[in-house]
Design goal:
mainly alpha
Amino acid sequence: TITAPQDSQAKEKLKDDTFVEQAALYGMAGVEISKLAASKATSPKIKKYATASLKDQAADNIKLKQVAAQTRQDMPEKLGANYQRMIDELKSLSGAEFDKAYINLMKKTQDTTIALFDNAAGEPTLNVDLRVFANQTLPALRAKQKNTHALIDANDQLSQR
């Protein structure tokens, strides 16, 4: 299984720059792995999911960039080595193995992203614009997470036949 980089800051007291950096990295990784899945997945459901995820994540990334600019926070320019390694591992897979790895990776990154946004939404020392962004983004993140879980369940049922 491919392991997603862990965000040790998701449970700690968040600072503005840490939240922006972590949210941006998860967003950038989400775009990259969904681009890959949109072209490489074999399941039509997973291709459709990846295309929708790509569109949603790109829109979220634009909003984050705007809020980061308002709050004078720097956005990372590129993914770190552990994210690139995760993407390279995913690239090396194909067929049903790729589909399963992609959807499980989306689940892991979504779970961690939601923990990060939950923490940000309730962190009183975080810049108010960042807290508002986190609060406004959480419902959509949770809806995506629900869709991901449903897709995993459907995939598991198919592979048990």
